[in-house]
Amino acid sequence: MSTIAPVTTPDVAAPSVTVRALVPGGLIVLLFLACGVLALLAPNRDDGRGISRITIEHADGLYALIPGEVLDCVRQDDRTAVCTMDVLGKPLRVATTYDEYPSRDATCVASYAGQARSCVPNYSSDTSLSLGAVLADGLGLTRAEFDTVAASAMPWWRFDNGMPIVVPFMLFVLPLAAALVVGFSGPAPAAKATLLMVGVAVGWLALLAFSKGLFSGVFADWLQPAAVIGGCTVLAWQWALTRPGWRTGWARGVVAYVAGTVPCVVALAFMLVGGGYVD
């Protein structure tokens, strides 16, 4: 009498990598790009323009910001920079002159439509940052004219307060995108856990070094433990994504959103402080 041998199912090897396991590395790559954008628009960007931005104040307590990238600036010498632009069809000219090194003092002169205007240098507490200029007399503009200037002076890639639109992209869009990818991908583990974790660790350190190298601002002491927290979070997240995931996609997505937000916030803090966006 013959017997029927039990049918055995061969073990299925885990794939080397999965889509969700690549999410932390992809997030770091996008943070690299965001770092480059913030560096181009940073107030302390050392491109020789000499004036980081112009602030026009109005008697009603309002102010209009003109960022440095929309100014036409030239260096007359090592100490003097002259920036011009048209305001309501009339020429605005602002010149700043630094005192001899190592003094941080500077003078500022301005004219609008051929008439001299009040100009005050705007210093930052960080002496490595570029100088701003404040036009305290409002250029003699009426309220309607001032509102027109305030609405048109800021380019589309910045909010009215001067902050680049890439900031909410880093805080909300990137973590949400990571959550969607992880949530809709399968829960399968990845075999190359060690390789992925090493790659993410190197990428995180390179991102922080890259942002610090691009920016000349002084980094606050609290950024050091923040960098450690961000690194530990992204490493733990990377390890978890190489393990079998939750069966439900929404649970995987929620965890990914929280885990992805932490490195985004830390990286953004490095860029905003180092670039002089926050004082």
Automatic annotation (TrEMBL):
It comes from the Bacteria. The chain crosses the membrane at residues 21-42, 165-184, 190-210, 222-242, 254-278. Keywords: Membrane, Transmembrane, Transmembrane helix. This is Uncharacterized protein. It comes from Actinokineospora globicatena.
